[in-house]
Structure formats: C-alpha cells, structure tokens
Design goal:
With 101 residues, this protein is mainly alpha-helical. It has helices spanning 2-21, 25-44, 63-72, 75-97. The chain is elongated, with a radius of gyration of 24 Å.
C-alpha cells in the first residue's frame, strides 16, 4: 500500500511539473539556443588588443579611434547588437505595459 502511495505521489509531482513547464518549453529552447550562439561567438572571437586601436596623442580618450573601428571592422556585430538591444527595449515596454486592456 505504501509503495502505491509513493508511486502515485511521484506521478502527481511529475505531472504537475510537466504541466508547469509545458508552455515554457519553447521559450527555454529559444533561450538555450541564444545562449549557445553567444557562448560560441565569445569563445571564437579574436578580441582586438590595445595595439590595434589607432592611437591619437591629442585625445587620450581615443573616441575617434573606437568609432573608426566600430564603423569599419565591426559593422556587422554593431548592427546585430543594435537589433538585440532594440528587441530587449520593445520586450521591456511590452512587459511594463501589462495586460490592461
């Protein structure tokens, strides 16, 4: 009798966990795919060193050198980052708006 009760309780726990996670599975898969793409990109990127940034002795902040690099060598990552940030902003607005009709 105790064995049946334990197995029934275990089955209830598994069923409730599945019912809780079922609508979230697609979101979790998309999040894991996005995380894996980011990790592969970070691991396989050859990060530029300080020697590769053009030096300007008059302006020590070197904003001009960073701008030249962003708009010449790193155009595609810059555009991808802008799309990701725009989608995050739109998602934050949607979440802050709520379900009020």
């Amino acid at each position: 009798m105790l064995n049946k009760t334990i197995s029934f309780s275990l089955m209830q726990i598994i069923t409730s966990a599945y019912n809780y996670l079922k609508p979230r599975i697609l979101g979790m898969v998309v999040a894991l795919l996005f995380l894996s793409v980011i990790l592969v990109a970070v691991a396989s990127t050859g990060w530029p060193s300080l020697d590769q940034i053009p030096q300007n002795l008059d302006d020590q902040s070197n904003i001009e050198g960073i701008g030249v690099l962003i708009f010449t060598d790193f155009v595609v990552p810059f555009e991808i980052l802008s799309i990701v940030l725009l989608s995050a902003l739109m998602g934050a607005i949607y979440m802050a708006k709520g379900d009020d009709n």
